[in-house]
């Protein structure tokens, strides 16, 4: 029975999801024996050197000599968090391009003219999300206010939290408002919500905030609840275990990367706002959001706004930088994606529920927006993995 060391935290949903995926792989392809301690990211590791282990899956935060030695001598998978990728090892990395792109698209759809990004200093994945988010916003003709803080580590949180909060408060008071803001993850997003309260700013009226990871506990503890980009860590845990299995058997190939895919935005109260000053356009946008499940058309949105289709299209192009039809397609495609990921409903049933004529119609519609068929999207982004 292979003995595997797991140095993965259980204090956040991303870590727990990785562990669930690893456990599922071991259930289907094991059995494996695990060494694992419930912990956060900074808990000291004891007795590791004495373990007769066959492999290791570890976060990259623990750089003690003992852990470094284990990574060098054992088949292993490195889950990125704080450092650059480890050459010669299988590295698990998040798809920062897709994550930041989804967040930017969501905030642009709320009608903001001002945007911000709050991230961690000296953290590669946060920097990648920052750069992609800024690029997407600039491509839409807007600028991004950027603020970065040191990551709050559990062993230093008491003295660090106040300093970080005050830094964010000062920044929020200086930026133009209303502003649509992406936080690099849910932990920092919740911190930005708290800083808004301290700065006497309303969420989402003054500052609309979206995070990433969709940690339902963290998002739910935020007041108001935090919108977030859902990221499929469970599937990546399953894939990481599969790679390790091959390496321990001596026949596996070290992949360049194991990519953690994002699937959709989970909107909550922290971004429940439309900041469009044009009353008619705002009515059309709200109508599209509220009726997208029933097959809304541009003509229907124009009637709801009291405008002709030509005038509505002109206002969409001027303010939103895309057409009314593109807005409808974006929202409906996101609805399909969410149902593919969060449910096991057949594609035909999803098509019927969203007012599409048949499976072929919804498949063409979805592929045009996401670049994948519904089944391929569910296979790569869905919660279920192959047994």
Write up this protein.
Strand 9 (207-213), helix 7 and strand 10 form a beta-alpha-beta unit. The strands form two sheets. This protein has a six-stranded parallel β-sheet with strand order 2-1-3-4-5-11, covered by helices on one side. It has a six-stranded mixed β-sheet with strand order 7-6-8-9-10-12, with helices on both faces. The chain starts with a strand and ends in a 6-residue tail after the last helix. It has helices at 13-29, 65-73, 96-109, 124-139, 157-174, 186-198, 216-221, 233-249, 279-291, 298-305, 309-320, 324-342, 347-353, 359-370, 374-381; strands at residues 3-7, 33-36, 55-59, 76-79, 90-94, 115-120, 144-149, 179-183, 207-213, 227-231, 258-260, 262-266. Helix 5 packs across helix 6 and helix 12 (324-342) crosses helix 15 (374-381). It folds into three domains: 3-94 and 233-263, Response regulator (Rossmann fold, 3-Layer(aba) Sandwich), CATH 3.40.50; 96-230 and 265-271, Rossmann fold; 279-381, Arc Repressor Mutant, subunit A. With 387 residues, it is α/β, with parallel strands linked by helices. The model has no long low-confidence stretch (mean pLDDT 89).
